[in-house]
Amino acid sequence: MSLERQVKAKIAAKRNPQQDIEAQEWIEQVLGAKFPAGELYEDVLKDGTVLCQLINKLAPGSVPKINTSGGQFKMMENINNFQAAIKNYGVADVDVFQTVDLWEKKDIATVTNTVFALGRTTYKHPEWSGPYLGPKPSDENKRDFTEEQLKAGQTIVGLQAGSNKGATQAGQNIGAGRKIIIGK
Fold first, then answer.
1. Which of 56, 57, 30, 24 is nearest to 43 (CA)?
2. Distance CA 53, CA 72 (A)
3. How far apart are the C-alpha atoms of 113 and 105, rounded to whole Å?
4. Which residues form the Calponin-homology (CH) domain (predicted)?
5. What is the signed CA dihedral for 47, 102, 21, 85, rounded to 10 degrees?
6. Is 0.85 topped by the overall pTM?
7. 83: how many CB neighbours lie within 10 A of its CB?
8. pLDDT tens digit string along 141-177?
């Protein structure tokens, strides 16, 4: 098998059809419109218009101009505008797909992961009342200890420090003992 085919097979193996369906259903719920019947998930998202409409629903005015006609560069501009808008919304750079992943359908799994990252980020925006996608991210649970509590903690030896409550290896014989033979 050629290297190119191996790479394509590996990327295809990453794709989870169930996640694609969940992402599509979430987008449809947010937009209040179904995807066109008979069209594939990646084909609907390819020109970036649906993605731009999605971020504009979550954060109005994020993408002021959505290109609905023009050449491929205008459509790729939609994707780039969407990516910039979701970064401003709070999605981490590492969670954002590359434009070619969607436009050339090179890695649709990464596109779906980006949609999930956007869905998780909506939890952090109190102005958004739902629907949500994916698990809710945890919040920081900062704790303040008094000096007395911190000093009390220093006297305790944790098991990670190597304490084994006095146990030793004395008396353990594994295998035959060592024999020293003198003068042969």
1. 24
2. 18
3. 14
4. 17-122
5. -70
6. no
7. 21
8. 888 888 888 888 787 766 555 556 666 666 666 666 7
